[in-house]
Amino acid sequence: MLDVKVIKAPAPGTMQIIRQRSGARWGEDFRPAAVGLVQGKLIEMVVASDIAEKTAGVVVTDVRGSCPQNMVMLAIAGETAEVMECLRKIQDGKDASHDCR
């Protein structure tokens, strides 16, 4: 099961936290309209990342835990409508290219 949240108009401090926990992959000047956060099992987060990148023009990064190898969350950033659409598809889990049932 995935936990999913969205932050609309993230504050500079929030973006700084994400930058620090993701290895500063997003520059100081990157100010997305929204950031979607996805947390779950590693396998689910990798599939969620793929769905997001195939759905819309968003930027996805992993957010690490206390150990650099420990991915605990994904951050999906972009325009609000695009982030919301990605999160909807991730929650629906109805992406045929990832269904092995």
From TrEMBL:
Renumbered to this chain, the signal peptide range is none
What InterPro entries does this protein map onto? Answer: BMC_dom, CcmK-like_sf
Q: Which residues form the Bacterial microcompartment domain?
A: 33-97
Keywords from the named record: Bacterial microcompartment
Q: Where in the cell is it found?
A: Bacterial microcompartment
- GO CC annotations? bacterial microcompartment
UniProt main location, coarse: other
Its name, as the record gives it, is BMC domain protein
